[in-house]
Specification:
By secondary structure, the chain is an alpha/beta fold. The chain is built from 26 helices and 21 strands. A 5-stranded antiparallel beta sheet has the order 2-1-5-4-3, sandwiched between helices. It has a 5-stranded antiparallel beta sheet with strand order 7-6-10-9-8. Strands 12-15-18-11-19 form a 5-stranded parallel beta sheet. A hairpin with a 5-residue loop joins strand 4 (159-167) and strand 5 (173-182). Helix 20 (524-540) crosses helix 22 (563-577) and helix 25 (628-635) crosses helix 26 (639-648).
Length: 658
């Protein structure tokens, strides 16, 4: 061995003095390196005690750049150092530019190499330290072992270095690992140990990358789950909760941190309804559930999907959760369950009407139940929408239900909803009623006087208890809904006739508004006519025609049994008839124009008789304090006959309601 090393030393001297290479002595790898060092003017007699040591700031910057490499290499460096410890050997890690990132050495090797710089931050590239295992491995990008006089600088001739380059998973050169010791202790397996350690480091870098990418993917999924508009819960086949976003925890009324990695039965109960999907493998979509909780219970809809392995076995499930309020808001948006009209949409200058509007604006903020009475076409729904929009519930739903238009057998299910399988033909999964859908807003019960008696008792219970129980259900659902009821009937008389419950009447009759018929505010007729002419002309895409005084006169003289609604329809019909841009009586329906044109003395006499009869009946009712039985006896007619005449002449008791 010494003989071979002597020959290498003599060849080194020959190259340094005469720049000649003895190829049969010097390996091509070493020869190429010597030529590079010569071209870079490396001093072969340099002491190498100060190998361009970087500043502390520069060192920290380079270490930060290669943190992934250091984290991956340190465990294997420690293992390698423990293996060679006590053999006058050091283990060194350098970056891709030859700067030392870390070094492990004992006191003996530190003393024997005290003339050399092995500190963190020193530069062992070929351009600075000449041929050496670190610098040469970086240039040739393969494992190398440089022994004794193979080093270009004489200060290294007592050492042997074994090094191998380290590549990233993307095959980027990241650095080099080396073992340096006294040349007398060189062993042919030392380089193999370094290569094995580098392979382990590179495998660790691959694992690091996979873990990092997995972490990034997990964080992306976690962020996506947290930003979902629905709640989400994931459960393994063994019942462990592996995922629950914040909204899901809110819907289930649990603390998220108390659920993750816990068994579902421990935090949500053994009867948690969503587990049925995993038990029988039957997935479901938008199914409604009620879950008992310490806070009183929560109702939500859920869509569940099971997860299966390659063999088809269920390994878990994922379910989305949606709050009922969110579902209801979506329903309202789709079906247009919103009030769009305000008090500004109520047209007229009549003092009586203005007084009603002023009082309605005041009570709108109270949240009390309101009863609207008036003939058909007087604008009860417009009034109800205006009250809703002037209240604190204006941002909530406005649900309309016509109690007279729904088939008798469907009224209860429409109002209160039903559970799955409540009756034949019931929709699968059940259905919320109008009171539930109106939660947080207003429900407008139009034609309340036509509600069947047996349903009236259920409505009374809802108004009293402020909660509903669906048909076929057991759980009471709290509601926060304002009720506005409307009717064209006199409910007090309907109570006396046995058609309406007295207790429900009192419950509804908290604040009452009697909307006047159009004939009671004749001065508003021309004003309304002009408004409808302009509104409908705009809709039809035509210029508003001129209205003649005769046209106005016909409208004013008509008795308008259909009120404002009838007037609007008449104006629209007239606008379809006009051709000259001028509205005249001939454009009106015959019932309006002919009744004015063909008024005969006989018809006038009949009209006067009817007015006289109405006056007598009204006076009798007033004198008997509107006691129907007493008034009928005084008039000598039956009670039902008196009711019919009261309705025919549209007689109303003159009293104010709070």
């Amino acid at each position: 061995m010494d003989r071979k090393l002597n020959r290498i030393y003599r060849s080194w001297e020959k190259f340094i003095n005469n720049f000649e290479i003895e190829p049969y002595v010097i390996r091509p790898l070493v020869a190429n390196s010597w030529h590079r060092c010569l071209r870079m003017r490396v001093d072969p007699c340099a002491t190498l005690s100060d190998l361009r040591l970087l500043s502390q700031v520069q060192i920290e910057k380079r270490i930060k750049r290669r943190k992934r490499l250091i984290d991956a290499a340190m465990p294997f460096m420690n293992h390698l150092y423990n293996f060679v410890k006590g053999t006058d050997t050091l283990v060194c890690l350098a970056d891709d530019q030859g700067m030392v990132l870390d070094v492990l050495k004992d006191s003996v090797i530190q003393y024997r190499t005290k003339h050399l710089c092995h500190h963190i931050g020193c530069d062992w590239s070929e351009a600075i330290a000449g041929t050496n295992s670190i610098g040469t491995a970086l240039i040739d990008k393969k494992p190398v072992q440089i022994t004794a006089s193979e080093h270009y600088c004489k200060a290294l001739h007592e050492l042997t270095g074994s090094a191998a380059p380290i590549f990233s998973p993307e095959r980027e050169l990241m650095g080099v690992l080396c073992i340096v010791g006294m040349y007398q202790n060189v062993h042919p397996h030392t380089l193999g140990m370094v290569v094995a350690a580098v392979e382990a480091i590179e495998n660790q870098l691959v694992s690091q990358k996979a873990s990092y990418e997995l972490l990034i993917a997990y964080n992306k999924v976690k962020t996506a789950i947290e930003t979902m508009s629905d709640g989400l819960i994931a459960i393994e086949a063994d019942g462990q909760i592996t995922q629950l976003n914040s909204l899901g925890a809110k819907i289930l009324q649990v603390a998220r941190e108390d659920c993750l990695s816990k068994h579902v039965s421990d935090v949500l109960g053994a009867d948690f309804p969503l587990l049925d999907a995993m038990t029988d493998g039957k997935e479901f979509e938008d199914k409604e559930f009620f879950l008992d909780t310490p806070s009183g219970g929560t109702r939500f809809t859920s869509t569940a999907r099971v997860i299966r392995d390659k063999e088809g076995n269920i390994t878990g499930m994922i379910a989305t959760l949606r709050e009922m309020d969110t579902v209801h808001k979506l329903v309202h948006k789709m079906v247009g369950a919103q009030a769009t009209l305000t008090f500004d949409h109520i047209i007229g200058n009549d003092p009586q009407l203005h007084s009603l509007i002023k009082r309605a604006k005041r009570v709108a903020r109270s949240g009390s139940t309101i009863l609207l009475q008036g003939e058909s076409g007087t604008g009860k729904e417009i009034f109800a929408q205006a009250v809703h929009n002037a209240s604190g519930r204006s941002g909530g739903p406005f649900i309309v239900i016509n109690c007279g238009a729904i088939p008798r057998e469907l009224v209860e299910s429409e109002l209160f909803g039903y559970e799955d399988g409540a009756f034949t033909g019931a929709r699968k999964g059940g259905r919320p009623g109008k009171f539930e859908l109106a939660n947080g807003g207003t429900i407008f019960l139009d034609e309340i006087g036509d509600m069947p008696l047996d349903i009236q008792s259920s409505l009374l219970r809802v108004l009293q208890e402020r909660q509903v129980t669906r048909i076929g259900g057991q759980k009471a659902i709290p509601i926060n809904t304002r009720v506005i009821a409307a009717t064209n009937k006199n409910l007090a008389w309907e109570v006396e006739k046995g058609n309406f419950r007295l207790d429900l009447y009192y419950r509804l009759n908290v604040i009452t508004f009697q909307l006047p018929g159009l004939r009671e505010r004749p001065k508003d007729i021309p004003y309304l006519a002009q408004y409808f002419v302009e509104k409908i002309s705009c809709r039809l895409g035509q210029n508003p025609p001129t209205i003649t005084p005769e046209f106005y006169n016909c409208l004013t003289e008509y008795h308008w049994p259909g009120n404002v609604r009838e007037l609007e329809n008449v104006i629209e019909q007239a606008l379809h008839m006009v051709e000259s841009g001028i509205l005249i009586p001939d454009h009106l329906p015959s019932r309006i124009y002919s009744s004015q044109k063909n008024t005969s003395p006989k018809s006038i006499q009949t009209h006067k008789l009817k007015n006289a009869e109405a006056t007598v009946i009204m006076n009798t009712l007033e004198s008997s304090n509107w006691n129907i039985s007493k008034a009928a006896a005084v008039l000598g007619i039956g009670r039902n006959t008196l009711y019919r005449k009261i309705d025919r002449y549209n007689l109303r008791q003159d009293k104010s309601h709070g």
